[in-house]
Amino acid sequence: MSAEQTDPTYRNPVLNADWSDPDVIRVGDDFYLTASSFGRVPGLPLLHSRDLVNWTLVGHALQRLEPEAEFAAPRHDCGVWAPSLRYHDDRFWIFWGDPDQGVFQVNAPGIRGPWTRPHLVKAGKGLIDPCPLWDEETGEAYLVHAWAKSRSGTKNRLTGHRMHPHGTELLDEGKVIVDADRIPGWFTLEGPKLYKHDGWFWILAPAGGVETGWQGAFRSREFFGPYEEKVVLEQKDTDVNGPHQGGWVRTPSGEDWFLHFQQRGAYGRVVHLQPMRWDTDGWPVLGDDGAPVTRHRRPDLPPQPPAAPATDDDFPGGRHGRQWQWTANPRDGWATQHSADGLRLTCVRSADAHDLRKLPNVLTQRLPGTPCTVEVELRLDSEEPGARAGLAVLGDAYRWIGLQRGTDGTVHLVHRFAEAVADHERDADHPRPAPGGRARLRVEIGAGARCRFSYDTGDGFRPSGQVFAATPWRWVGALLGLVALAPAGQGHAGAATFTRFRISAS
Q1: Does residue 423 have an active-site annotation?
Q2: What structural domains and CATH numbers belong to the chain?
Q3: CB 358 within 8 A of CB 369
Q4: What is the 3-state secondary structure of 106-135?
Q5: Can 190 be counted among the known catalytic residues?
């Protein structure tokens, strides 16, 4: 066994990247987690663990966002918000809210699918963070959801419904079951997770905002209330700001644990694991008497080898690993399968080639939450003037480094950026020749997500441009991206080939 396997403790975060709004369940000896995926495709990531500490990405439940035309272009902060994962009637179920459309549901006989197409359970603007409950004692089913003020004009309250046991429709118009405007000091109540335990209906839900808020617990003998409340996890004197929104799970031996996120700027929402117990009055106690833990005894589960969602990729046969997501619904022909290793991306023509934030054909993965070095090898296989490809750090502001075919036929190393308020990128360094149309590209990401770009065109790595502080979107952390594009026009514009994508700890 490795030292990590024999260490009786674990350290937070257990998922040190942007796995936003996590929810977790146990089925037998296996734990499963899903998270928000917003406008990226495929959506609804599915993670697996045997010990609640080591997680691997095993697939996605949503292959395309619907309606498809709405997500043909990037909508970075829209789409899939705060899903809830449940297991009922020998099926996996995921409910989520699209703030512009309503509450959706998919289900499958196994975690790897096949998953059904999205079914709209409740239409409406601003319906977010839904969670179902099937009451095994009575056979009744329920659903609770929160509200997005940006779409509905309403927030800080939770609405409850009776739900058809098939999970396909709601049986009433809904009732406000928690109005946090009536609770002194509470605001932005959201992210409810619904449970039945010890004869009580429980809603675990955060409030106070993602940066500085707290985790609350609500209980009632009846689903429609009245509910009493208690703060069960808050920052206190720790460095874990706003411990927020997650799920409760019980191990086979009867231990209780809670997974939640912490907002960390450009790194997005990283996932922490907290011990959980019940006090003498029947309320849950999270962490160290309500404060988040940094290190703690591991769950009472069989030791597992160290694991984390994959980041590196050799792109065997031209296929990318499941850690990658497009910034919108993909179209045929963006990536070409072939017999060798390497990702062959078509230089997609676009009138928006001047702004990577508007392009649907950027292939992304999450920015690691610890200092690291990102490298990839690139060959520009295009004779089209203006065709280009590269490695990006993508957010509300972005920067990328790569290769571009000039009007004179030569290939240049280019490095460009766009500020958050800019609608057009510009050079971050002077273009320079790239003999043979090849380069190794590197981004060194230090503390505070400060990024240093460099390149190697055959004579060793050389720095390029100034230090760039990665920035998130409103709800999404910064992303690493691979992109190939060309100016608007007619005909095929060639391709670019990426090989040996690597992320190593700094």
Answers
A1: no
A2: 19-297 (2.115.10.20), 324-505 (2.60.120.200)
A3: no
A4: EEECCCCCCCCCCEEEEECCCEEEEEEEEC
A5: yes
